[in-house]
Design goal:
With 74 residues, the chain is mostly helical. It has one helix and no strands.
């Protein structure tokens, strides 16, 4: 009976170890969406700033073009 008890204990230990690994994996999977969401938010802020910079450059080019046109007039 001692051998049967030891085998049961080994099975329970193995099951417990597998459950720990499973819970660790689920925790990792739960963190991934949060990381993606954070990265998405950062990327959106970068894109918004790039668009603002592009608009500023377009205005500066327009002003520069107007100044050059004024200088070109006789």
């Amino acid at each position: 009976m001692d051998a049967g008890f030891q085998k049961d204990e080994e099975c329970w230990a193995h099951l417990s170890e597998n459950l720990d690994l499973l819970f660790a994996r689920v925790a990792d999977l739960n963190r991934n969406p949060h990381r993606l969401e954070t990265q998405f938010d950062i990327n959106m802020k970068i894109i918004e700033q790039m668009l603002k910079d592009q608009q500023l450059l377009a205005k500066q080019l327009e002003v520069t073009g107007n100044v050059v046109a004024q200088l070109s007039l006789p």
